[in-house]
Design a protein that fits this description.
The chain is of the alpha/beta class and about 270 residues long. It is built from eleven helices and eight strands.
Amino acid sequence: MPITNVKGIELYYEVHGTGEPLLLIMGLAHNSLSWKKSLPALTENFKVIIFDNRGTGRSSKPEIAYSIEMMAEEAKAVLDAAGVDTAHVYGISMGGMIAQRLALMYPDRIKSLILGCTTSGGIKQVQPEPDVIMTLLSGASIPTTPLEAAWASVPILYSQYFIENHRDSIEEHIQTMIEIPTPPHGFMQQLQACLGHDTYDELEKITKPTLIIHGDKDRLIPVENGKILAERIVYSELYLIPGAGHLYVTEAQVDADTKVIDFIKKYPIELGTN
């Protein structure tokens, strides 16, 4: 169980498979266990590095202010600890925000970028409906059990069709979420970091090949935000998943994994880079 230390913050990470390095960055209140259904397909093709962001999982959970910049520095530190100079980077939701900042801060460490169900943030982003915002904020302010909190978030994380027809998959994902619960302060500090995220005016500086994936029924981060990213990142392509909500990695896991693998294989890392 590798741990790396960054300015007193312990970060838990794992390395799976062989091949070109692929760093996976998870979203708000989720830890590296949430990648487990995608790992088999991804590790067949790549050396996959997963880790727990500060505030979640087996990493440190300091009760201080977090920022996306801090978490991007820590993502870079995980690459350092894994002995990786250049990697493909795939982040979803908050992880996509971290991936954007990582690409801006350390462009030489990234070969290609995959941004899933995420946003540039700031005043130019398209906000979710008021009831979605209230549900999100209640998760940080109303005392509840991890299981209750997870089920309360279901209406904003999944499409209505998936909720009605795939409860078993949702239950499986929730069990993964609560295996190592994110404490309320970890959730709140990560949420505050997301609210402070804004790369809109910097996106044109990202010149790495970029794949943007978004479910077109995403209630938490509306699909228009994926379109904004595609418009402002020079070498980007947008892949919309019809009918999928925010957690398209659960709703359309095989489709999304296949698209990511095919995209990365178009941009091989030169020999000797790692």
